[in-house]
Design a protein that fits this description.
By secondary structure, the protein is an alpha/beta fold. Helix content is 32%, strand content 23%. The protein has helices at 39-49, 64-75, 136-145, 160-166, 176-183, 191-202, 243-256, 261-275, 288-297, and strands at residues 2-6, 10-16, 32-37, 53-57, 78-79, 92-99, 104-110, 128-131, 150-155, 171-175, 209-213, 219-223, 226-230. Bound molecules: adenosine-5'-triphosphate and magnesium ion.
């Protein structure tokens, strides 16, 4: 059961400021959190923490942030043998302002340089590939090498690189921002409008399954061509940073364990809601048992995961 997470790794410094930021003000911070972050990395940490053979395929520099990331990610059980080989690259990092009153966050990200990276492949095919649109060349190289493997894309922003990876994905699980950028309009409220949007998303790679996550409003997807609205599990959200990344990590883990599409979405949803109640992204990943207990408390049993 191996999951390869291809995409971005970053170091996140999160400050909590429980009010709207306005120019020319000074804000005194009472708390801050530092930890590794970014979608592929967080997804890999969920899978590693839950005992899967989890591999991160990302560019990480030989610098201080890179060293901390590697140590912490390894301690989550993530294997780094297949990191992208991009000599001289510096590690991506982010400043994040989290508003603990609203549960929202604003991210300022310095990306790594996009110099060409060398991709290394395992001998055996992975069970699942989770990609976040940040390393399209590596993602496509993996899908060509292992054409039978299920590919999940965490489609966050509708840019060229995410579209390239979505085109080779069997599961397009996108954010509201992605679909709104893709369709060029706000997500409709009515069932008919949402179904139309989900169909449009499905045309990116015909035959793929699609869902759109809507933060605290939950998510929408199609089951036998019928619209399903899955509400979010209630959370006392203080910092939703990485909720989507953690959602996708749990989703990919579920796929690797043979769960149905709907069960993977439910598992992702509960995992993300628990994580939103804690500061930091990678630091807020719950244990699998905690997620299964919380699901059971809602009367939902997912067989075969204990
Ligand atoms: N405040 C919240 N309360 C409860 N559940 C949440 C909350 N925020 C997110 N979730 C859960 O996580 C899922 C994914 O969140 P969201 O749609 O915000 O992802 P995203 O847009 O990719 O954001 P990001 O990747 O930046 O975290 C939602 O569908 C929901 O199930
Ligand atoms: Mg996201």
């Amino acid at each position: 059961m191996s999951i390869f997470c291809v995409g971005q790794a970053a170091y996140d410094i999160t400050a909590r400021v429980d009010e709207d930021i306005v120019p020319d003000q000074k804000y005194r911070l009472t708390t801050h959190t530092e930890c590794p972050g970014a979608p592929a990395l967080n997804g890999a940490c969920v899978c590693g923490k839950w005992g899967a053979s989890s591999y991160l395929v990302a560019r990480i520099g030989e610098d201080a942030c890179g060293t901390i990331i590697k140590n912490q990610v390894r301690s989550c059980g993530v294997n780094l043998d297949y990191l992208l080989d991009a000599p001289g690259v510096s590690t991506s990092f982010s400043f994040i302002v989290a508003n603990g009153k609203t549960g929202t966050r604003t991210i300022f990200n310095f990306p790594s340089q996009s110099i060409e990276a060398n991709v290394r492949f395992p001998e055996e095919a992975p069970d699942v590939i989770l990609c976040d649109g940040h390393e399209p060349e590596a993602t496509i190289a993996f899908t060509k090498r292992f054409p039978q493997v299920a590919v999940v894309v965490d489609a966050g922003t509708c840019c060229e690189s995410t579209m390239q990876t979505a085109c080779v994905s069997d599961y397009i699980v996108s954010s509201r921002a992605f679909v709104e950028q893709y369709t060029g309009k706000s997500l409709p409220q009515d069932d008919e409008g949402i179904v139309e949007v989900l169909h449009a998303l499905g045309e990116i790679n015909p035959g793929c399954k699609v869902a759109v996550t809507l933060g605290p409003e939950g998510l929408v997807y199609l089951e036998d061509n019928e619209l399903v609205r899955m509400p979010a599990f209630p959370a006392n959200a203080v910092d939703s940073t990485g909720a989507g990344d953690i959602f996708h990590g749990a989703f990919a883990y579920g796929l690797s364990r043979g769960l149905s599409f709907a069960d993977c979405l439910t598992l992702g949803s509960m995992t993300a809601s628990i994580s939103a109640a804690k500061m930091g992204s990678q630091r807020s990943i719950p244990e699998l048992d905690e997620v299964l207990d919380a699901l059971e408390a809602h009367g939902i049993a997912i067989a075969g995961l204990r």
